[in-house]
């Protein structure tokens, strides 16, 4: 029986595929390579290039593979882009989920682990954020993922498809050997942008907003290492295989770092000056996002290995030094 990983050539998906292979799972990957990289996919996984919204393609994958469960990473995830082009997000993310569940119902696949996001909570009323907090997104990206959670809820009731929604906070870092990592075009995320400045590829970091109600005025986020995140998906799959009901879990470290603190940590890790300037707020950004993640720890048995943001940045820097131009620099993942 195979684990089908949708979006397995993307940043988080490729790390999850790698961990699944390391743990002895049989893995099939689907990715349309719009934002993913073929070279990021562990070559022990079977690879199908195509789009999950293409029902004929998806059916052909389910025909060829005996799927025990699906891990679904295939989605767009850039907050500012979603503000400019919301329909792109509702099409790929939300409509893509409908197509996927149709195929799962058709092929009697009853388990799905799904990438949700802290962005479904919007601007929280209480920090740290618990899974029971109101979900009121402040941007279309979060709204598209909230709609996906709701679609899964009703599909569970109607078709018995059990799901685990993993609500990620801010993901960073890379496989410690530097063989796979984050490579977005264009890059919009804080840690890789800071490292591009450290590497001399960008002149300076723009810090979006310094008048938020936070200790130093910049946004506060909760950072999780991509390998810890990947491992949570495997635990969630096992949880569903044990026959549990559908559930949702936050994945974070329960510690907040401001954008300025991340910059300082990166200066220390890279030993480079990393020039930065204050810039206007970015539309759609909540002020502070910190997870209460004890539910994942107690119910899934999740034990994140990385609790130091400098260690997380160090693995991202290792990847950056190993592959300065990302996957353009390298052939494949052993
Ligand atoms: O050049 C930059 C880039 C980012 N930031 C700031 O850095 C923080 C983090 O921004 P990212 O774009 O790295 O991450 P987000 O918090 O916007 O988004 C992340 O968390 C979200 C949940 O809120 C979603 O899950 C999303 O997919 C994930 O990337 C924000 O305050 C942002 O304004 C800057 O100041 N300068």
Automatic annotation (TrEMBL):
It is an enzyme of class 5 (isomerase). Gene3D superfamilies: NAD(P)-binding Rossmann-like Domain (3.40.50.720), UDP-galactose 4-epimerase, domain 1 (3.90.25.10). Pfam families: Epimerase. It catalyses: UDP-alpha-D-glucose = UDP-alpha-D-galactose. Keywords: Carbohydrate metabolism, Galactose metabolism, Isomerase, NAD. Its EC number is 5.1.3.2. InterPro entries: Epimerase_deHydtase, NAD(P)-bd_dom_sf, UDP_G4E. One of its GO terms (molecular function) is UDP-glucose 4-epimerase activity. Its cofactor is NAD(+). Pathway: Carbohydrate metabolism; galactose metabolism. Residues 3-252 form the NAD-dependent epimerase/dehydratase domain. SUPFAM superfamilies: NAD(P)-binding Rossmann-fold domains. GO terms for biological process: galactose catabolic process via UDP-galactose, Leloir pathway. Belongs to the NAD(P)-dependent epimerase/dehydratase family. Homodimer. PANTHER family: UDP-ARABINOSE 4-EPIMERASE 1, UDP-GLUCOSE 4-EPIMERASE. This is UDP-glucose 4-epimerase. It comes from Liquorilactobacillus sucicola DSM 21376 = JCM 15457.
């Amino acid at each position: 029986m195979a684990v089908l990983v949708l979006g397995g050539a993307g940043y988080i998906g490729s790390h999850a595929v790698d961990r699944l292979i390391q743990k002895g799972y049989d893995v099939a990957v689907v990715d349309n390579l719009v934002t993913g990289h073929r070279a990021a996919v562990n070559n022990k996984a079977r690879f199908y290039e195509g789009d999950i919204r293409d029902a004929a393609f998806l059916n052909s994958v389910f025909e060829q593979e005996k799927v025990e469960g699906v891990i679904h990473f295939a989605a767009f995830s850039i907050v500012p882009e979603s503000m400019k082009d919301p329909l792109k997000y509702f099409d790929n993310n939300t409509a893509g989920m409908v197509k996927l569940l149709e195929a799962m119902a058709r092929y009697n696949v009853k388990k799905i682990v799904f990438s949700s996001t802290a962005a479904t909570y919007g601007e929280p009323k209480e920090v740290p954020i618990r899974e029971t907090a109101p979900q009121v997104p402040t941007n279309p990206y979060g709204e598209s993922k909230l709609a996906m959670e709701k679609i899964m809820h009703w599909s569970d009731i109607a078709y018995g498809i059990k799901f685990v929604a993993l609500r990620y906070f801010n993901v960073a870092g890379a496989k410690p050997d530097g063989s796979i990592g984050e490579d977005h075009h264009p890059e919009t995320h804080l840690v890789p942008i800071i490292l591009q400045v450290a590497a001399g590829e960008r002149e300076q970091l723009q810090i979006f907003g310094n008048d938020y109600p936070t200790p130093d005025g910049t946004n506060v986020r909760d950072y999780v290492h991509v390998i810890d995140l990947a491992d949570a998906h495997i635990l969630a799959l096992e949880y569903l295989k044990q026959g549990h009901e559908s559930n949702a879990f936050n994945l974070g470290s329960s510690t907040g770092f401001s954008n300025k603190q991340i910059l300082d940590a990166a200066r220390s890790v890279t030993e480079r000056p990393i020039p930065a300037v204050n810039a206007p707020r970015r539309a759609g950004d909540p002020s502070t996002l910190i997870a209460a993640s004890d539910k994942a720890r107690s119910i899934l048995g999740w034990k994140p290995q990385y609790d130091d943001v400098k260690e997380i940045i160090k693995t991202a820097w290792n990847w950056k030094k190993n592959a300065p131009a990302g996957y353009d620099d390298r052939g494949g993942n052993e």
